[in-house]
Amino acid sequence: MNFLTRFLKVFIVALLFSALGGFVFYEVVIAGHKMNSDVSPDQFRTTIYAGIGAWVGFILFVSIILAFAGMKGTLSVPVSDRNNFLQRINAAITGLRYRPLSQTENLLIYKPPVIGGLLAEKISVQLEQGSAIITGPRGLLKKIEQRL
């Protein structure tokens, strides 16, 4: 998954949660309350626009950080004993709360946990002759490498 796709996915989810939060805030705090007499409608509008602009900027910043953090990477690992490696890799990945999704002779795919699964990416392990190529989020690849 390229950066733009990952960024848009994170950004859209963040905007949806922001819109929901904004709606709840409006209904609970603002609806039915009268504006103070010393605040003009233009001042009120300017303050609202500044708040919305700051919030969208914050969401953009967080989305970029999360998009970079979740970008896929690859890791090549030597495999001398296939069965031992399969046990170790399974323990390492399930220790990160990922669960097996599918398995073939040379390909293992793990799905992310339910919580956070909307933004999380799958982890795949491609077994080759004498090595394995692990593909997944970069941050998790470091943890997997440490556990192996």
Shape: elongated
How many domains is the backbone divided into?
2
* CATH architecture label name of the largest domain: 2-Layer Sandwich
Q: Note the main sheet.
A: 5 strands, antiparallel
Helix content: 40-55%
**What share of residues are in beta strands?**
15-25%
Structural class: alpha+beta
Low-confidence stretches: none
Total E-strand runs: 5
Enumerate how many helices there are, as a single number.
4
Describe the structure in your own words.
The protein has 148 residues and is of the alpha+beta class. It has two domains: 3-69, no CATH class; 72-147, TATA-Binding Protein (2-Layer Sandwich). Helix content is 54%, strand content 20%. The protein has four helices and five strands. It has helices at 3-30, 41-69, 82-94, 138-147, and strands spanning 72-78, 99-103, 107-111, 123-128, 131-137. The chain has a five-stranded antiparallel sheet with strand order 1-5-4-3-2. The model has no long low-confidence stretch (mean pLDDT 85).
